[in-house]
Structure formats: structure tokens, C-alpha cells
Amino acid sequence: MVVDAVRGCVLWICDAGLACCAVEVAAALSRVSGPGPAQAAGASEVNVFVVAGTVTDKLAPLVLAAYQQVPEPRLVLSFGACSNSGGPYWDSYCVTKGVDQFIPVDGYVPGCPPRPEALLAGLDLVLQRARA
Predict the structure, then answer these.
(1) Is the pLDDT score of 1 beyond 60?
(2) How many Å apart are CA 17 and CA 98, to the nearest integer?
């Protein structure tokens, strides 16, 4: 999906929707997605990998493989308590204690589940960090 960030960037969003947070990501992106990259001619492109949901130890290699397939420059947004820290399942033997255990994360959006508006705020946060 493409989101025009109005500030001279086009965000290509790759969503690793693993649980209920993925519904919130889809809701937020359905509100703001544009017709495609042609609308932002001359704007720089930034790839954002959004991890939304519980990452189990079995899923972690697949999430890592998907992350590695996102072209540079790429940013990572951890969306929701489960991807941030394991959420309410943190003490389970099979839940990864946060996606930052195996990929670098540029921004975190807290909540269980976060509101769709929180995704937009998180995208703005990672864009600010990318420009700094």
C-alpha cells in the first residue's frame, strides 16, 4: 500500500499482520491509502515494515525473511503490545519478547490493540526519526 505523507515522501507499507492488531492496521490504511505511486512523482520513497501482532518463536524466522525482502531504505514500526513486548502472552514459552529481539525497530506504537489513528502517529514518528 502507498501512503502519501505530504512531506515529500511516499511510504510503501508492508504489513506483517499476525493477530488482531492487523485489523487496526488495515482500518487505518484503508482511510489514507492513495491511488498509487504515480501521484507522488519526484517524491522520495521510504519502505515501512509494520509488524502487528504476536510473534511466536516459529513465526520469527518468517518475519525476519519478510523484513529482509523489503527494499532499502526501510523503517520498522512495531504496532501493538504483542509485537512490542509479547503483550499479555509475554510469559508463554513460545512467544518472542518483542520483534526487536531479531530485527531493528525504528518506532513503537503501544496499546492492545492500538487505535487506527495510532498507526498514523507511529508512521509520522518513524518519518521524523528517518529525517533526523
Answers:
(1) no
(2) 15
